[in-house]
UniProtKB/TrEMBL annotation:
Residue span(s) of domain NADP-dependent oxidoreductase: 22-314
InterPro entries: Aldo-Keto_reductase, NAD(P)_OxRdtase_dom_sf, NADP_OxRdtase_dom
SUPFAM superfamilies given in the database record: NAD(P)-linked oxidoreductase (SSF51430)
Protein name: Aldo/keto reductase
PANTHER family noted in UniProt: AFLATOXIN B1 ALDEHYDE REDUCTASE, ALDO-KETO REDUCTASE YAKC [NADP(+)]
Organism: Catenulispora pinistramenti
Keywords, sorted A to Z: Oxidoreductase
The UniProt record lists the keyword Transferase: no
Entry keyword Oxidoreductase: yes
Top-level lineage group: Bacteria
Length: 337
């Protein structure tokens, strides 16, 4: 894996993937799931990210029922293709009302999805293409093999995975080099540390970590009385009643550490993820320029061994109350099995 002497130095996605800016931009919230959106501000945020040197932008063809890709196409129009890298997830199936109705990672479905993504994004290739979830009806070897055909054809540069466990990682890597595993990782979502992260490292697979602020819960900006209407966090276990009280108390312990270092809670939390290894690239889901600026400030946060020990004591693994998804979604996560 790439080692870095500077927090601003590029990081490589695994041993075979591209070099990217040390933070990636997650675009999902610009179109869906986190309440009202502002298209103009979202586009301005993408431009600000690129101006700051960020290169990796993550989306999914099902974010906003395709709207997220169209938004990014507008934001990226006229910008040289070598200035940014697109990571796209596919496979989630939705009905006309927007409900999620399963996953289809079959070769025919993924090639069709890829064609539509290329058209919506108005690009000739994707830098990383990955199934959003494991499809229990399609062997991972078939899915990876089909994406590999698209690599050979020039439509995809690298193959990634998302939320899969160790067995799936090994089976996929035996078919084609895998650049990175996209998986939730934060101070309060650390299940991957037991076996998934060691396996990824054994295989030379990098990690793009989403949910580094646990969907805003540990950003330092979430308040107990905040409305989550029209927001999937309204049904997220970690945001419910006593769970929320417990988790916000953890945030206050982090705030004490952050204030002593003269940084924000969000910056401390992002810097902690980045400090877990040079093979990890945190994805920040900033929807506004001010939040992006705050996230970028995490690159200037230096965490000593003593700092890391203090953070670990304040928020040890397993400290959060509530699962990261509801029971139905947790049951579909290969990474949790």
């Amino acid at each position: 894996m790439t080692t870095t002497d500077s927090p601003h130095a590029p990081r490589r996605l695994g041993t075979t993937g591209p070099e990217v800016f040390p933070l990636g931009l997650g675009a999902m919230g610009m179109s869906a799931l986190y309440g009202p959106t502002d298209r103009d501000e979202s586009i301005a945020t993408v431009h600000a990210a690129l101006d700051a040197g960020m290169t990796l932008i993550d989306t999914g063809d099902f974010y906003g029922m395709g709207d997220n890709e169209l938004l990014l196409a507008d934001a990226l129009r006229g910008i040289p293709r070598d200035r940014y890298q697109l990571s796209v997830k596919f496979g989630a199936q939705r009905d006309p009302a927007g409900a999620f109705i399963g996953n289809d990672n079959s070769p025919a479905a993924l090639k069709t999805s890829l064609a539509y993504s290329l058209r919506r994004l108005d690009v000739e290739y994707l830098d990383v293409y990955r199934p959003a979830r494991l499809d229990p009806n399609v062997p991972i070897e078939e899915t990876v093999g089909a994406i590999g055909e698209m690599v050979q054809a020039g439509y995809v540069r690298h193959i990634g995975l998302s939320e899969v466990g160790t067995d799936t990682l090994r089976r996929a890597a035996a078919v084609h080099p895998i650049s990175d595993l996209q998986i939730e990782y934060s101070l309060i979502s650390r299940a991957l540390e037991t076996s998934i992260l060691p396996t990824s490292r054994d295989l030379g697979i990098g990690v793009t970590a989403y949910g580094v602020l646990s969907r805003g819960l540990i950003s330092g900006h979430w308040s107990k009385d905040r409305s989550s209407e029209g927001d999937f966090r309204s049904v997220s276990p970690r945001f419910q009643a006593e769970n929320l009280d417990h988790n916000l108390a953890l945030v206050e312990t982090l705030r004490t550490i952050a204030e002593r270092k003269d940084v924000t809670v969000a910056q401390l939390a992002i810097a902690w993820v980045a400090a877990q290894g040079p093979d990890i690239v945190p994805l920040v889901g900033a929807r506004r320029r001010d939040r992006l600026t705050e996230s970028l400030g995490s690159l200037d946060v230096t965490l000593s061994a003593d700092d890391l020990a203090e953070i670990e004591k304040a928020v040890p693994a397993g400290a959060a109350a509530g699962d990261r998804y509801d029971a139905g979604q947790m049951a579909h996560l290969d990474s949790e099995k």
